[in-house]
Each structure stands twice: as C-alpha cells, then as structure tokens.
Amino acid sequence: MSILIKSAWNLVFAIVLANQTLAKSPHEPDILSFIRKLEANGNYAAIHHAIPNAKRPERPVNQMTVGEVLSWQGSLTGVKSTAAGAYQFIHKTLKKLVNENDIPKTRVFDQSLQDQLARILMRACAPHLRAEQISKDYADCLAKIWAALPVTQGPKKGQSAYEGIAGNTALASVETYLAVLQGTKIDRTSPSAPLLQAAPEGPNIIIVQNRVARINSALVKLGGNKSIHKFNFDPYALE
Q1: What sign has the CA pseudo-torsion 175, 178, 180, 185?
Q2: What residues contact 136, with CB distance under 8 A and at least 6 apart?
C-alpha cells in the first residue's frame, strides 16, 4: 500500500464514512485491476518481499481470516513493511478499514474482501465523480491514496503525490492512467504497461518481479540507458 500521511489519511477515512453510498465509477473493476497490477502484480496472496521467511505466515494471506492477517501483521517486528494482499494493505490501514466498516474478523482475507476494502478507499473519491466523464480531480484523489498513481494536473503532473518522499514515484504515465479511468483496456504487454510482462506459458500468466526491481526498471526506462537512482530498499515501505 502507498505511504500513509497522517492528515491525508484521516481526511480519506472521514470521507469514506460519510459517503459509503455515493456513486462509483462505471469502470471501477478495471481501475482496481490497474492498481493491483502496480501494487502487487495482481497477486492476492502477496506479502512484502522483504519480510524474511522465518516471519512469513504459514498459509497464504488470502486463505487466512482478516483477523489472522491483522494478528500476524501486528506481530511483525524489525521489518520494513507489513504490506499484504493485492493492494498491499499495511497493518495500520487494514486495521482501520476493518474496525471502521464493521468487517467481521472471521471473514477470509480473500479476493472478495480485498476488493471490497479497496472499493471503500476508492469511493472516498466519489464526490469528484462527474456523470459525463471521469474528472482529473477524481484521478488525483485516487493518486493521494495510492502513491504509484500519477497526479494528472498542476505542478506535480506526472509525479506521485508523494514524489521524493522515501523515493516514491509514479509507476504509470498520466496518459495511461487517464485512459484506464475512462475505460480503455490496457494491453499488459505493451510499452504503456512496462512493469507487467507476459510469461512464456501464455498471455494470462504474469511474471512477478519484486517491487524494488520493478521500480528500478521503471526508473531506467524514464532515464534512458542509465538509472536515475537505484534503490536497494522498497521506497513504499513506510509505516
């Protein structure tokens, strides 16, 4: 999950609670898919790659109850991040979502629940939806929740809302991002989606790279033949 800025997240959750029944984007499934691909290559069982084997759960997180996931995350010490699931929810975010939305802790942390929780975050941006089109204000609201998404207007256009904070950078172009919001299907093997690669076994299989490698790869592409900056840690892993 993207970096938590306390004041911003307090505002996000306040809006969430006030707007549970507001309109949703007609392209919500595709937007969620796009976010999943940037955050965890769509893997609902993903956990942060820097968590050592000795501290990993015995079962995949998408087979555990959300209460078990929270207990496991809360037990982690000395790790860079507690991020888990396709949307890389860290412990603080997941706990707040569960508690403030009356999610039973006995529910399995599976695809259905993870998508539900991500939709709750997305719908915090519902006041920015317009009937005739997806507004850039809506796009930028989402970008304040997930740092891998680019800001679409203003002086930070094309950058992460948290650009430069612990190395955060946008992992998609403004053009690609807005196209997804408008309902355009993005070919994961095209240059517009350089972080997603089709595996030799077939077009529906994705090669999973760890996020540090993906970020470095993106920066190389942005800088031409040389890396702008090479990370040896995950710049998303702040809690």
Answers
A1: negative
A2: 152, 153, 178
What pLDDT digit, counting tens, does each position of 175-211 carry? Answer: 999 999 988 876 654 434 433 332 233 333 233 344 4
H or E element in which residue 15 lies: helix 6-18
Gap between the terminal Cα atoms of the chain: 10
**Mean of per-residue pLDDT scores for the chain:** 75
State both tokens at 70.
Answer: 């929270």
**Sequence-distant (≥ 6) Cβ neighbours of residue 223 within 8 angstroms:** none
147 in Cβ contact with 235 (< 8 Å): no
The full set of domain ranges for the chain reads: 6-222
Three-state SS for 70?
Answer: helix
Residue entry with tokens 């093997």:
189
